[in-house]
Design goal:
By secondary structure, the chain is of the alpha+beta class. The chain has a domain at about 5-110: Yope Regulator, Chain: A (2-Layer Sandwich), CATH 3.30.1460.30. About 55% of the residues lie in helices and about 20% in strands. The protein has 5 helices and 6 strands. It has helices at about 5-10, 55-60, 85, 90-105, 110-175; strands spanning about 20-25, 25-30, 35-40, 45, 65-70, 70-80. Strands 1-2-3-4-6-5 form a 6-stranded antiparallel β-sheet. A hairpin with a 2-residue loop joins strand 3 and strand 4 (about 45).
Length: about 180
């Protein structure tokens, strides 16, 4: 981290704790986990939106622009006014304005809720999958069982029938041949 980026903790001390992290070939400036500033080449840019951009533009402050695929691309960050580095009250005012723009620009659902939604989705998916799997398994098992049972039953029945028939036929045939024994019907 550059000395300039490290100095921002002191600049924004009245605003609250900040965290500076490497990103975009520079550093992101975060407060409460939300990025509200950007440092590129020791220049501080603050987050702006439709409600706050006019304040930056009135002071003639440039928007952060970089080249992407040969074309200039700008982000919703404007160069911070010099007063931010000279006056603690100005630093707090501009930081608050940039942080509020970042708050307005974030997704409607807070990060913690997004994490819970993903967890709930996984749990619901697992429960639904288990129920569907059980139903499908039961249906498939029943069909397969019925088919297998029918085949097995037929095979067993045929075998049993053949054995029983053979035994009965052998006994009956034996009885018919030997008249000495009375037949039992």
């Amino acid at each position: 981290m550059s000395e300039f980026a490290a100095h921002l903790s002191d600049v924004f001390r009245h605003f609250g704790p900040i965290d500076v992290r490497r990103m975009f070939g520079g550093q992101g400036v975060f407060h409460q986990g939300l990025m509200f500033g950007l440092v590129i080449d020791d220049t501080l840019y603050l987050k702006a939106d439709a409600l706050s951009a006019a304040g930056f533009e009135a002071l003639g402050l440039p928007r952060f622009t970089y080249t992407r695929q040969g074309r200039p691309t700008s982000l919703s960050y404007y160069q911070a006014p010099e007063g931010v580095f000279e006056d603690a009250a100005e630093a707090m005012r501009w930081a608050r304005q940039a942080f509020e723009a970042a708050l307005r620009g974030r997704p409607k659902q807070p990060a913690a809720a997004r994490g819970n939604a993903a967890k709930t989705g996984r749990e619901t998916g697992a429960k639904t999958g288990a129920k569907t799997g059980a139903k499908t398994g039961a249906k498939t098992g029943a069909k397969t069982g019925a088919k297998t049972g029918a085949k097995t039953g037929a095979n067993t029945g045929a075998k049993t029938g053949a054995k029983t028939g053979a035994k009965t036929g052998a006994k009956t045939g034996a009885r018919v041949r030997s008249p000495a024994k009375p037949s039992r019907s």
